[in-house]
Amino acid sequence: MRLEHIGIAVRSLEDSNELFEKLLGRPHYKIEEVASEYVKTSFFKIGESKVELLEATSPDSAIAKYVAKRGEGIHHVAFEVEDIHAEMERLRSEGFTLLNEQPKRGADNKLVCFVHPKSANGVLIELCQEVREEEG
After folding, report:
1. In what order do the strands lie in the sheet with 110-115?
2. Where does the VOC domain start and stop, copy by copy (predicted)?
3. Among 5, 15, 72, 134, which lies 20 to 30 A Cα-Cα from 26?
4. How does pLDDT run across 21-53, given as a tens digit for each residue?
5. How many distinct structural domains can be found in the chain?
């Protein structure tokens, strides 16, 4: 449906919030921890899209491993979808490798699923759908 957000892996959410507030000329609007992913996130609204900063809360998290291997930088690109289950099935039928069998709860009241970077020109793609009452 649209580019939902760009995820940026950072070492320090506090330092990066300050940097992005200066860069974008506005404050972040939310900080949220996703305990299941061992990450703390911060969101900046830019038009109809967002920038999500991600800081690891455990050395075993995917973000900690990403930063250790590649340094800070763009981690993923997220696209909003109307029906995440249907989109996952469509992508599987097109030959994409998904990192999740089923969508899971992510930050910002979303159901999420990731497409393996090897299936998408080296880019980690996130599909996200707003959580609806019946899925909550």
Report:
1. 30-34, 39-46, 49-56, 2-10, 73-80, 125-130, 110-115, 104-106
2. 2-130
3. 72
4. 999 999 999 999 999 999 999 999 999 999 999
5. 1
